[in-house]
Amino acid sequence: LAKTTQPISMDSYEGQEVNITCSHNNIATNDYITWYQQFPSQGPRFIIQGYKTKVTNEVASLFIPADRKSSTLSLPRVSLSDTAVYYCLVGRNQGGKLIFGQGTELSVKP
Amino acid sequence: GAVVSQHPSRVICKSGTSVKIECRSLDFQATTMFWYRQFPKKSLMLMATSNEGSKATYEQGVEKDKFLINHASLTLSTLTVTSAHPEDSSFYICSARDQGGGELFFGEGSRLTVL
């Protein structure tokens, strides 16, 4: 399973765009990249998933370069409620288990 | 979206007793469910993969006799912490995919406190 590396913590202010980069140098051909958000004492919540290039949904964008050895989660105009831990996971979609890395603790300040 | 539900959300028990946590997929069938545990300020640690109709696959270092997993139907997996001790106190989270693969859905988590 590909190991992921993320910054341990990030600070931001309301209204700013936040980019969190994850390194996954040994990603396999069949692996997808998935980002989850977790609030204290809650289960992780799916944010976005991608395989290559760029994916965008109503809450975030995911940028994946051609070599797929890293990915960047982009959160536009964050608010206080975006304060959470963000996890980047790499793995197969069909039945594959997902191993969590350390995650990035994002703190959004007023 | 699909929902995974855990019960109970909180449980307090005495040392030496056993505690069962249920994980249900409410609107989809899951042949595979995963159990994680999480200590305060730490990441989720995968404990085991629960397979419907067969034995669970445990991660290295996880005691299978301590953490009993049963996946008797396509919508229910249970984790039983046997002879619980204070060091078993943790946040236990289950997750599941529907049979078509794709997004992994997580339960709300169950906080176990062993006195």
Description:
The complex is a heterodimer of chains A (110) and B (115). Chain A has strands at 9-13, 18-23, 32-38, 45-50, 53-56, 61-64, 70-75, 84-91, 104-109. Chain A is an all-beta fold and 110 residues long. Chain A has a 5-stranded mixed β-sheet, with no helix packed on it. A 4-stranded antiparallel β-sheet of chain A has the order 2-7-6-5, with no helix packed on it. In chain A, strand 5 and strand 6 (61-64) form a beta hairpin. The model of chain A has no long low-confidence stretch (mean pLDDT 94). Chain B is an all-beta fold. Helix content of chain B is 0%, strand content 51%. Chain B has no helices and 11 strands. The A-B interface holds A 34, 36, 41-46, 49, 87, 93-95, 97-103 and B 1, 4, 6, 31-32, 34, 36, 43-46, 49, 91, 93, 95, 97, 101-109, 111.
* Rg over C-alpha atoms of chain A, rounded to the nearest angstrom: 13 Å
Largest interface: A-B, 20 and 26 residues
Low-pLDDT segments, ≥5 res of chain B: none
User: Could you give the distance between the termini of chain B?
Assistant: 37 Å
The proportion of strand residues of chain B reads over 45%
Q: What share of residues of chain A is helical?
A: under 10%
Largest sheet of chain B: 7 strands, mixed
Q: Pairing-aware structural class of the strands and helices of chain A?
A: mainly beta
Provide the succession of SSEs of chain B: EEEEEEEEEEE
Structural class of chain B: mainly beta
Helix content of chain B: under 10%
Distance between the termini of chain A: 38 Å
Strand order of the largest sheet of chain A: 1-9-8-3-4
Mean pLDDT of chain A: 94
- Number of strand elements of chain B: 11
Shape of chain B: globular
Number of strands of chain A: 9
The percentage of residues in β strands of chain A lies in over 45%
* Main beta-sheet annotation of chain A: 5 strands, mixed
Shape of chain A: globular
